[in-house]
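User: Show me a protein chain along with its predicted structure.
Assistant: Here is one chain, sequence first, then structure tokens.
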Amino acid sequence: MYVSEGLERIREQLLDEGASQKTIALVDAILARAKTPSAANATARSMSELVKMLQRTPVATNDITVYNDLLRLEENLAAAAQAYRERAEGEERQAQAFAESRSKAFYKAQKERKKSGG
């Protein structure tokens, strides 16, 4: 994802969570830099990576309110990622169980056909 897009999403989530104005100002300042032509194509692997980068800024390390806002967002992102992984694993287990039951039924029916001569 592009850094600017990730920062915009982070900003929206911080606003939804009622983050302090200092935290929003930090994100806005970094977002302004990310939108410059020289940085427009910068990418990040995840929003969590961007939040960790924000946590390491001087503003966050010197202001506990800003740091706590970012920490809360990081925890929310981690919880959402964990819920997604658990849901995906559950769906995978269901698909495997379904495929296994179908294959057992197929081979059982095939065996019955052979027994009945057909």
